Amino acid sequence: MLTSEENDLLCRVEGDAPMGQMMRRHWIPALMSEELIADGKPVRVRLMGEDLVAFRDSDGKIGLLDEFCPHRGPSLVYGRNEQCGLRCLYHGWKFDVAGNVIEMPSEPADSPMKRKVKIKSYPTEETGGFVWAYMGPPEKIPAFERPPFAPDDQTPISIAKVKVPCNWAQIQEGQIDSAHSSTLHSTDMVPARVDSAGATEKNWTRPSTDKAPRMITQTTPYGFRYVALRRPIKDARTHDYARVTVYVAPFISLIPPNSSYNVASIVVPADDESSWFYFLSWGGEATVGTEQWRQFNRLVMGEDIDSDYNSTRTLENDFLQDRELMNNGSFTGLPGIPNQDIAMWVSMGKTVNRSRDTLGASDFAVVEFRRLMVDAVKNFRDGKAGPIGISDPHIPQVEISSYQGIIPKGTDWLTLGTEETEQMFLSNMGKAAS
Questions:
Q1: Buried b / exposed e across 304-324, counting CB within 10 Å, b at 16+?
Q2: Is the pTM higher than 0.90?
Q3: Distance (Å, rounded) from C-alpha 363 to C-alpha 109?
Q4: CATH classification of 157-433 is 3.40.50.720, yes or no?
């Protein structure tokens, strides 16, 4: 349970809000690489309450600029993306990817105005299927590093995207909540007598029927890890089924994998009351292709989402819930794992009032998320610490991973899924705490 002040600190990201300012110190997943074509249509991007425009120029470089021309304010989304610049339709002013004015045809040729005017622009990097942006103070820009799901350029990645009309924090809480998957997603995550979680074209399988996992958390320099221990269907007296979820603050959650591929999600605030949600499969010998992944999750453009990534399932149409489907075996009547989550997140309201929560043992990770992020933003606001995940000690993100598997009872779960570097950090943190 949080106070109203703490809830505001956690949720608000616009303007000078401390959480938004802390997030700006990170490299932010701004949009998917596939959305930008060289000399193609500019794309609207809303991040942290700011309206921006992204474009890929003739040389393949990416610009992320203020959406509105500094001359008289028309949107550059309608501009001409040509010859290494974005040209405003109104008077022809043209901007390069760094925000410099490179042409000003409506002004005299000898006007010094071109040297004085510059549109707001943000640095970008591109990897792992995403365009990343840094929106913080230029003098504080951290080195860009590969995310956990893109250790190299050869790792296959499939991404589904949807805009969700609610605050980022209630989405992120859903991503690090292992307990809900046994109920909300029970039609798509099916118990089976298997030795490891698996995946088919229709559903995922897991080796447990246990809906009340025991949870243990471990704070890390980048966020936290936690294990959900369940009784396995086989060998329940001697073994546990362990699912380790990882929160890489502030945007990324690493979901326990299956035998075919790894799973991750990214939550990026568009503003205080809407968010970008990305659901990823990556790595593994049987990673599904992008279109198959979007079909599996029922997030196909033109069918499940529109061209701006808004879902066709809304609060106003009850998310197109099919009660007949429920009578015929579907637990929710909502096809697609993300659509089931979205119905829960959005039905809570634009921003959850956490001062009225009733929490139980299954909310252990949610409580840890709130404590971690509220403490982090308070310390950042008060100048007591740098942004979470950027300050030392630092673990390279490509060495961070989730885990799932059947393990002998008493196994030290802290070592599951960790690389040598992270084990060293966690060991030293444990010694310091004791």
A1: bbeeebebebeeeeebebeee
A2: yes
A3: 65
A4: no
